[in-house]
Specification:
With 297 residues, the chain is mostly helical. The protein contains twelve helices and no strands.
Amino acid sequence: MTLDIDVAIRNGFSRTFKRNGLLLVGAFAVFGLVSAVLTQTAAVQLLERLGNLPTQTPPPGPGGPGGAGTPPTEMDDFTGSQPLALPIPLLLAVPLAALTPFVAEALRIVAVRTLVSEHTESIPGAFVRENIVWATLNGFVGGIVVWFIVVIGGVIGLIGLLIGGPLVAAFFATSFFFVRQEIAVENKNFVDALTDSWQLTSGHRIGLFALAVAIWLIGLLVSIPGTIIGFAAAAGSPGLATIAVTVVSVVLSALTTVFGIAVAARAYDQLRAERGGETGDDGSTATGGDTTAHHGL
């Protein structure tokens, strides 16, 4: 079957605003805020501990240390740009911040499983529990491998022909478009996922590239309110502007992340139906309301 981009986008939009889609948006938003707090906290405390930022020597007298006229240091300026930083111990903040990429991958795995399935009201516990560590590690490593292949392919193409770099990078990016889906839904390791994504996308790469561009453009449009709010808040207080922009950006990013996963999930469902020979009238898998058996959960 031919990939129907319009159906994938419309179904992805619909699934984003179903009950479990909104639950996923909330989960990504909370994670984004927690991640921002941990990252800013770790950055501030690391710089304070290492003393990498030079400071200005305050003048003696009323303008000396503790005085009202004490000039701000570069450390003060940096701290002011990190308003979400909390007094969390460094030995706790840094390891927690380092774990955030793995938590993000686990969330994406759960989101893929949910949005590929026909569940719309809840997130089945099996999607969260079954093989989640295995899938998360494979998804994380697989993402790095895909990024490396895309970058190296783009560099090689750029050396061969100026316009060849972006074309080669786009080819590899679309070829491995469904690596995470193959890992999350079919419980494959990242090597098998790379191979099967390549096969699944064969003959559909132009359509998938157009779908990826459409998702990117929609995300760009959604980000505009955050920019407007940032400019409006900056007119009042710089500190408020930073917090406002961070919070709005995190929420909008959560929304566009779930939307992107939902659209990719519906496109994946179309193509794996072709692979499995199980196609319904609307292009979805003909398994009814529960696709748990499809991915072995």
